């Protein structure tokens, strides 16, 4: 791939069959549809993809399926989330062997580590990485908030491609862009504040919602990137409502899967212990999507 690694990266779900196995045919079919929207790439095996519920064999088969389905038409980023640096590095090595273009790592979760301890853990991972690395700042899930100075301290590894930011701090995107400069991309990681992130200078969006609404998400990014802020705000009035319903629900993965299944793109259930979205939440989301499509034909 030679095109820049910024813009919209859609995050696939993991479809399952009735027997509970991965439905890789359904995954490949949806990849074709999402790529047609013009997204820059896919970020597989993130939280939306239920990565932590997959076995090593399932991880391998999914990565190979994504790489094969994309076939060089977009960038493929693979989540390599693990507790120990050694396991992160092993996952990165496998992702490189299986054809990924880049990887994403998080701070070791559950430990509630101080930022300095996280940086000490991530430094050898980035230094040894065969691929460009996105660092995912997700304080809600990891218990650690990496500030701009913490992220910037990893730039000297030569492997820090980007940061995915989801802290929700009001001015964080602007601060990251200012501190990291042009050498490191800053991605919005929380769908409900996408437009705010773009306005502060974020150069891309890792969007779970783009697996469900790729055309609209791509259109929002294109408008903001071109400076068409009036168009972006107009679209955001309805798109933002739908995205907020998804992101604000603890069963957001199930919501995305059920909404896709309603359109004939069967995704199957989520794996326990993830929660299943209720019928009322699904109906509210489907109404919001219908309103979006009435007002903004993709």
UniProtKB/TrEMBL annotation:
It is an enzyme of class 4 (lyase). Keywords: Lyase, Schiff base. GO terms for molecular function: 4-hydroxy-tetrahydrodipicolinate synthase activity. PANTHER family: DIHYDRODIPICOLINATE SYNTHASE. The keyword Transmembrane does not apply. CDD domains: DHDPS-like (cd00408). The keyword Lyase applies. InterPro entries: Aldolase_TIM (IPR013785), DapA-like (IPR002220), Schiff_base-form_aldolases_AS (IPR020625). Pyruvate binds at residues 48, 206. Gene3D superfamilies: Aldolase class I. Its EC number is 4.3.3.7. The active site is at 136 (proton donor/acceptor), 164 (schiff-base intermediate with substrate). This is Dihydrodipicolinate synthase. Belongs to the DapA family.
């Amino acid at each position: 791939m030679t095109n820049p690694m910024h813009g919209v990266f859609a995050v696939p779900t993991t479809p399952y069959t009735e027997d509970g196995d991965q439905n890789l045919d359904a995954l490949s079919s949806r990849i074709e549809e999402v790529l047609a929207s013009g997204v820059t790439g896919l970020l597989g095996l993130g939280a939306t993809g239920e990565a932590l519920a997959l076995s090593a064999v399932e991880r391998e088969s999914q990565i190979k399926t994504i790489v094969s389905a994309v076939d060089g038409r977009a960038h493929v980023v693979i989540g390599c989330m693990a507790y120990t640096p050694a396991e992160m590095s092993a996952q990165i090595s496998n992702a490189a062997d299986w054809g990924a273009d880049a990887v994403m790592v998080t701070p070791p979760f559950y430990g509630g580590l101080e930022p300095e301890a996280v940086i000490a853990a991530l430094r050898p991972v980035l230094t040894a990485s065969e691929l460009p690395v996105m660092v995912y700042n997700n304080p809600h899930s990891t218990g650690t908030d990496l500030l701009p100075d913490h992220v910037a301290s990893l730039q000297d590894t030569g492997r820090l491609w980007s940061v995915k930011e989801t802290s929700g701090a009001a001015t964080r995107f602007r601060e990251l862009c200012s501190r990291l400069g042009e050498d490191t991309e800053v991605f919005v990681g929380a769908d409900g504040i996408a437009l705010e992130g773009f306005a502060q200078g974020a150069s891309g969006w890792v969007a779970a919602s783009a697996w469900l609404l790729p055309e609209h998400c791509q259109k929002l990014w294109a408008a903001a990137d071109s400076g068409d802020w009036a168009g972006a705000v107009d679209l955001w009035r309805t798109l933002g409502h739908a995205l907020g319903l998804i992101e604000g629900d603890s069963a957001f993965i199930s919501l995305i899967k059920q909404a896709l299944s309603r359109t004939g793109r069967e995704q199957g259930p989520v794996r326990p212990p993830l929660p299943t979205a209720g019928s009322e939440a699904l109906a509210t989301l489907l109404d919001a999507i219908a309103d979006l499509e009435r007002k903004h034909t993709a």
